[in-house]
Design brief:
Length: 118
């Protein structure tokens, strides 16, 4: 019975076409990631404020994705692709969240001086 369920699951998932991610969407995700990580790094180095760096980096990647899609939609071919804009914003969110989790946690400042007695 388990074998039949597994075979049916493989058959039905291979027929599904709803979760297709195009190569262009992957490029938009990567561009959003790069824009966001660069913005996060610059803002954090200037301000040492993780919250400000987080929000500025998300805004920068979202603005870049939106402006590129507006440019493509109205000037180049008349088609506004929301999926590409969302991919850029999600790439930015991924980078911002990753940087926010791992930047600024300096263990050297948290360790207290230990006096060794001989």
């Amino acid at each position: 019975m388990k074998g039949l369920i597994i075979i049916l699951a493989f058959v039905f998932t291979s027929l599904s076409n709803a979760q297709y991610i195009s190569g262009d969407d992957k490029l938009h995700f990567g561009a959003g990631f790069l824009i966001s990580s660069g913005t996060y790094t610059l803002v954090y180095l200037k301000t040492k404020n993780k919250k400000k760096a987080f929000w500025y980096s998300i805004a920068a990647s979202s603005l870049a994705g939106l402006s590129k899609e507006i440019y493509d939609g109205h000037i180049i071919n008349g088609r506004f692709d929301t999926g590409e804009g969302i991919s850029t914003a999600i790439g930015g969110l991924t980078a911002s969240t990753t940087f926010n989790l791992f930047v600024g946690n300096n263990r050297k400042n948290n360790v207290k001086n230990v006096v060794l007695v001989n």
